[in-house]
Every structure is written in structure tokens, then in C-alpha cells.
Design goal:
Blueprint (H helix, E strand, L loop, with lengths): L6 H9 L19 H7 L22 H11 L7 E6 L3 E9 L2 E9 L18 E3 L8 H9 L5 E3 L18 E6 L4 H15 L5 E4 L5 E7 L5 H15 L12 E2 L3 E3 L4 E8 L3 E2 L1 H8 L9 H10 L6 H10 L6 H9 L8 E3 L3 H7 L8 E4 L2 E4 L1
Parallel strand pairs: 8-12
Antiparallel strand pairs: 1-2, 1-5, 2-3, 3-4, 5-9, 6-8, 7-8, 7-11, 10-11, 13-15, 14-15
Helix pairs in contact: 8-9
Length: 376
């Protein structure tokens, strides 16, 4: 064997621990001993014969308890730690990891005072959640799967909410994630590989929603502060041109390993790896796409461009390439400004150039014809 044309046979043999050491060509895949090693690096060998995706980053179709185990592990929920699960987005359960692949689970309810009002964390309007009744389901996966099989949708909150499910209860921001749902699944995989190729970013986890979208996760070595997490989320969203709503700290995502009855499908794990990045490294890898950073004004303009009917990619790149003062919002502010009486500036530059010509002082009135600004 001198290439990876029979990649699926490699996966099958490695899953069954029957692959001989001589089976892998060391010039292409040196020193690999596990199936995860093959999957996580196969893009470098150019093999595209995966189960799910027709592109270099591809992987297994994992469902059931094993898929749930992988997602919990990749989100850094270790034995003894708790996590929140949403059923149909309105019923809340708290799970406790007991050992890899297993967790107990119990329903929760809002904490109320004697008058029936929600009791909230200090400085927050989001209530505490406490255990409802005494029922504990020792095999949480089994219980949730039974609920899923009768039509319940299952979601997990990645950002380690503790004591409640509001944004103020999120405690760990070491996972970045996006949801791609505006193009066919094969094109979503192509986009993942495009990001990997351009920025050297390999996902730590990819979850198939069981519907029209892939949920793509990237792992950070440490948890940044909430604001840094939001900025990195926004940067990823614009690169993927994905759902711009995925920026709330307590965002829920599909919980892999469960039936999605409405679709007749499974919420699955399609890829996982050990790829991890420091916050600084992750930001540095994205820097070429954001030469002027990502201010709130720039995000607002670029977010609107996600609905652009023309060449959306070109429009977003144009917005990201503009100096801060040339953003539409700032140009609009400049147009409302006044300039110094007696100053004359006539040129083909922007209105901002005219204001700069005046040393940043703005008094008087403005007039403009075609592309020429005159400050007088």
C-alpha cells in the first residue's frame, strides 16, 4: 500500500485493533497508533474517502452514548462536574458526570421566594435553578434518549453554567463554536476545510445536528474573559458566514448522541481531535482577516452583510478591510458634523479626508457634489 485510497479500511482495522504496524505508510502517516490520529491528520495526506464529508477533514458517524461521551469530554466536563441540558428549550435538567460516557440527571426548577418571585444572583435578573423533587436518573443518557424517542429536542449549554442557566451563570469560555446552516452539508464541510487551510485551525469537535447544520467547535487551552470570548465568537461567525445569534454566553447547542425524532435522524459526532489553541495563538491566526480588529461598529456592519443578496463573501471582506473611520457608521457621523468657517477643501477623497484636512475640528457647513467634497 502506497497511498490512502483505502482510508475506510484503515479506520475499520484500527477500530477493531487489528491494523498491523506495517499497514500505514510512514512517509504519509508516521507514528500513528489510534484511529483519532488518522482522522485528525488525514487532511495532510489528501485522502477524502470519509464516511460523512467529501472533504479532507472528515470522520466517523458516531451516535448514542459514545457520541454523548465525546461531546462532554471535548467540552471539558469531567467526572464530578455538572452541566445543564435543555429539553425543548423550556425544561431544564442538571447532569453530573459520573464516569466517561455516563452521567446522572435530575430535573430543575426556578428558585422562588415566599411570594413566588424568582430569586436571582446578585446583580442579575436571571434566577437560580434548584433540584425539582427527589428523582435522580442514574443513567442520564438512557433517560434522555427515552425522552428523545418520543419527540423531545435535546440541547446542552457548552459554557459550564453553574447554579442557573442565565448568561451570568456561565463560568468557562474555553470552547468556541459556530452553527452553519445556510448551505448544503457538503458545502459546510468544504468551509471547515477552507478555514483549516487558510488559518491552520482544526476543530476539536464537529456535531451533526440531525438536521441541516453542522456545529463546529474549537478548543482553547484556557478560558478567556467573557468579552474576549464574544469577540472571538464574532470573528469565527464572520469567517464561516454562520448564524450571528451564537454569541450569548449561555447559548445552547445540540447534544450529540440522541434521536431527533422530528427529522428521523440522530444528533451525531462527525469529527473530533485533540487540537487546542492558546487564546493568543487563536487570535494571531485570525489576524490576517481582521487587519483593523473587530469593533462593535464593524461587527454591526459585517453582521448585516450576512444577509447581503450579492457577493456576500466580497462584501464582508470589504467591510473588514476598511479603516475604522471609513466604516459607514462613522462616515454618517462625519456627515452630520460641521466644519470650521472659512476652511476650503476640494478633492476626490472622502468626507473623512476633508475633516482630517481640518485637523479633526468640525464647524461650519458642508456641501457635496458627485464624489467631490467641499468644506467651507
Amino acid at each position: 500500500m502506497n497511498n490512502l485510497s483505502n482510508h475506510q479500511e484503515i479506520i475499520h482495522l484500527m477500530e477493531n485493533n487489528t491494523i498491523p504496524s506495517s499497514f500505514l505508510p510512514t512517509e504519509i502517516l508516521p507514528d500513528y497508533s489510534t484511529i483519532d490520529d488518522v482522522i485528525a491528520t488525514q487532511y495532510s495526506a489528501g485522502d477524502v474517502g470519509g464516511v460523512i464529508a467529501p472533504t479532507p477533514i472528515t470522520g466517523r458517524y458516531i451516535t448514542g452514548r459514545e457520541a454523548a461521551r465525546i461531546q462532554l469530554e471535548k467540552l471539558s466536563f469531567e467526572p464530578g462536574q455538572t452541566f445543564h441540558v435543555k429539553l425543548n428549550n423550556n425544561i431544564i435538567f442538571e447532569g453530573t458526570v459520573t464516569k466517561p460516557g455516563f452521567f446522572s440527571i435530575r430535573e430543575q426548577e426556578k428558585l422562588l421566594d415566599a411570594e413566588g418571585n424568582p430569586v436571582c444572583k446578585q446583580g442579575s435578573t436571571a434566577p437560580f435553578w434548584i433540584n425539582k423533587g427527589n428523582s435522580i436518573y442514574s443513567d442520564g443518557w438512557k433517560y434522555l434518549e427515552e425522552r428523545a424517542e418520543v419527540g423531545t429536542g435535546l440541547f446542552i449549554i457548552p459554557n459550564h453554567t453553574q447554579g442557573g442557566i442565565g448568561a451570568d451563570y456561565a463560568t468557562d469560555f474555553s470552547n468556541l463554536f459556530v452553527e452553519i446552516d445556510d448551505r448544503p452539508i457538503p458545502e459546510q464541510w468544504e468551509k471547515i476545510n477552507e478555514i483549516q487551510s487558510q488559518y491552520g485551525l482544526t476543530p476539536s469537535l464537529i456535531v451533526g445536528s440531525g438536521g441541516k447544520s453542522l456545529h463546529v467547535y474549537y478548543k482553547l487551552a484556557t478560558s478567556p474573559d467573557a468579552e474576549t470570548w464574544k469577540v472571538l465568537q464574532k470573528k469565527l461567525i464572520l469567517l464561516f458566514q454562520s448564524d450571528p445569534a451564537i454569541i450569548n454566553l449561555n447559548r445552547e447547542m445540540r447534544f450529540a448522541g440522541f434521536t431527533r425524532k422530528a427529522k428521523g435522524t440522530q444528533q451525531s459526532v462527525g469529527f473530533d481531535s485533540e487540537a487546542t489553541y492558546t487564546v493568543e495563538d487563536f487570535e494571531a491566526r485570525l489576524s490576517s482577516a481582521y487587519p483593523h480588529g473587530l469593533s462593535e461598529g464593524r461587527w454591526d456592519e459585517a453582521r448585516k452583510a450576512l444577509k447581503f443578496e450579492g457577493d456576500r463573501n466580497a462584501e464582508i471582506k470589504r467591510i473588514l478591510s476598511l479603516p475604522e473611520e471609513s466604516l459607514a457608521k462613522n462616515i454618517k457621523k462625519a456627515r452630520k458634523a460641521q466644519t470650521t468657517t472659512g476652511l476650503n477643501y476640494v478633492g476626490e477623497g472622502s468626507l473623512v479626508d476633508a475633516v482630517k484636512y481640518n485637523g479633526g475640528k468640525v464647524e461650519g457647513s458642508l456641501s457635496h457634489a458627485v464624489n467631490t467634497w467641499k468644506v467651507q
